[in-house]
Amino acid sequence: MFRNLSVALKTEPGDEFVISKLDHEANIASWVQLAEWKGLTVKWWVPSKDTSSNPKLVPEDLKKLLSPKTRLVTCTHTSNILGSITDIAPLAEVIHATSPRALFCVDAVAYAPHASIDVKALGVDFYSFSWYKVYGPHISMLYVKKFGRIVCIMRSSLTSTLVDPYEMMARRKTLTRTQVTLVEMAIGFGPY
Ligand SMILES: Cc1ncc(COP(=O)(O)O)c(C=O)c1O
After folding, report:
1. Predicted model pTM
2. Which residues line ligand 1 (CB under 6 A)?
């Protein structure tokens, strides 16, 4: 999902990406690669407090990394390794106040199964979740603020197994079979 989102992002020379070090590789690699392709700057967002106990992504650390050139800030709502929960709304506030062109992308794969979510109150631009974390198929979906709704539902990670045509067919079938149900569930679940 993040791979697709990253290639869709419009950038300008000199743009900066702020990427959290607490994130799953899925929400890091795509952005780092895009920055490399386009010659953009990556600024790593590393928690400065409680680094050996419960490191958290907080506005104080983020503020030092933001600038008018910031195009993207990306972080996790909950770390899948540490369990640290990020307080998203204050971060969104700081980002949108400091960097008008910045888009805020949040990975909710580890958080969403455990809480009800109001994406509007969080102030996020992109918010992604994977259905297999709640015993569904390995399919992810993406909320996009600009459109005010979930805009994309697709097979999650592209793995090397997809070079196998049978594996590819099986995954396509899963996607086709489950898509409608997932859309219905999503509409029922959230304020869309
Ligand atoms: C926090 C987090 N983000 C992203 C992912 C990757 O999700 P997917 O397999 O749907 O690409 C995982 C997978 O465990 C995760 O825990």
Report:
1. 0.84
2. 24, 26-27, 76, 80, 107, 109-110, 130, 140, 156-157
